[in-house]
Design a protein that fits this description.
Strand content: 15-25%
Oligomer: single chain
CATH class: Alpha Beta
Helix content: 25-40%
Number of strands: 8
CATH superfamily: Alpha/Beta hydrolase fold, catalytic domain
CATH architecture: 3-Layer(aba) Sandwich
Structural class: alpha/beta
Strand order of the largest sheet: 1-2-4-3-5-6-7-8
Number of domains: 1
Shape: globular
Distance between the termini: 46 Å
Length: 323
């Protein structure tokens, strides 16, 4: 199996993708299939009890009063250590799909390894709730988490934000909001194949237009759902599409990873280049032969093992720097 322009997928990743596609035909997202897609994705997510299993981790749901009220799920070690770090998770789903439970396996691993107190947020989805609803919900949840650090049991100086795909894009947008509003000081931002540029016209977006896991057409639908008629125009907010930001100085250290064979490659590499130019400590990993979401589809592959090790290394170094 090869990418459209002849770039070969990593053999292990290609095998895992073939197995998946044998049971599920990829379709570009449209308004007509959105409800069905939401149902399918939500059904595939683990519950907290399933994700945690026998690990020494507790969980609880909390409703944050506001306009609107906001639901978060809190996960933490049963026996938290003093000065524990915090991780604020924003789920992906192209701005239109999924829920706060989608990243539980990743969060559980981070809690086991680093003792994180984790919060994952249920933000409103487009198109029912276009910009700025999603990013404002995510920002409100971050503010709540930082303000309740003592109660939750983590060190607010060790608070990291992160997510994948749309969750990575929203994490980048929230980091910009926190800087500009004088909000919570973040120790880092983990942006996994982040969705950050509504223009959707980079060379990689064109080259991998028919990518099986997140196509250019699905990306277009997600952005149009979020931005409506503003999509692609000159007035798009940098908090919705962080690639639009003109000033990236003063942002927290960033970890960015992206697959070589996916729509988001070029916009992610360009964002990192601009972070470096702005003096923001930034680590970029481009995984050769990898498609969007490879770590979920092929969790036991060498590529995923290496990617997880890189994330862990960055966490150790970033948290050490804030100790």
């Amino acid at each position: 199996m090869t990418a459209r322009a002849g770039t070969e997928f990593d053999p292990e990743l290609a095998g895992a993708l073939r197995e998946l596609l044998a049971t599920r035909e990829p379709r570009a997202l449209t308004a007509e299939i959105l409800a069905e897609a939401r149902h399918t994705v939500a059904d595939a997510n683990l519950t907290c009890a399933e994700a945690i299993g026998g690990r020494a981790i507790t969980w609880e749901d909390r409703v944050i009063p506001g306009s609107p009220d906001l639901t978060v799920t809190i996960l933490r070690p049963r026996h938290p250590r003093p000065g524990a770090p915090g991780f604020y998770n924003i789920h992906g789903g192209g701005m239109v799909l999924d829920n706060r439970f989608s990243d539980l396996p990743r969060m559980v691993g981070q809690i086991e390894e680093f003792g994180f107190v984790g919060v994952t947020v249920e933000y409103r989805l487009a198109p029912e709730h276009p910009h700025p609803a999603p990013v404002e919900d995510c920002y409100a949840g971050l503010v709540w988490m930082a303000e309740h650090a003592d109660e939750l049991g983590f060190d607010p100086d060790k608070l990291i934000i992160g997510g994948g795909s749309a969750g990575g894009g929203l994490s980048a947008g929230v980091a910009l909001l926190a800087r500009d509003r004088g909000g919570p000081a973040l120790a880092g931002q983990m942006l996994l194949c982040p969705m950050i540029d509504d223009r959707n016209g980079s060379p990689s977006a064109l080259r991998h237009a028919d990518a099986p896991m997140w196509s250019r057409a699905s990306n277009e639908f997600g952005w149009r759902s979020l931005l409506g008629d503003d999509h692609g125009g000159s007035g798009v907010s940098e908090y919705a599409a962080p690639a639009r930001a003109t000033d990236l100085s003063g942002l927290p250290p960033a970890f960015v990873e992206v697959g070589e064979s996916e729509v988001f490659l070029d916009e992610n590499v360009e964002y990192c280049t601009r972070l470096w130019r702005a003096g923001v400590p930034t680590e970029l990993h481009v995984w050769a032969g990898a498609y969007h979401g490879f770590d979920r589809i092929a969790p036991d592959s060498d590529a995923t093992t290496t990617a997880l090790a890189a994330r862990s290394s960055w966490f150790r170094r970033t948290l050490g720097a804030t100790a």
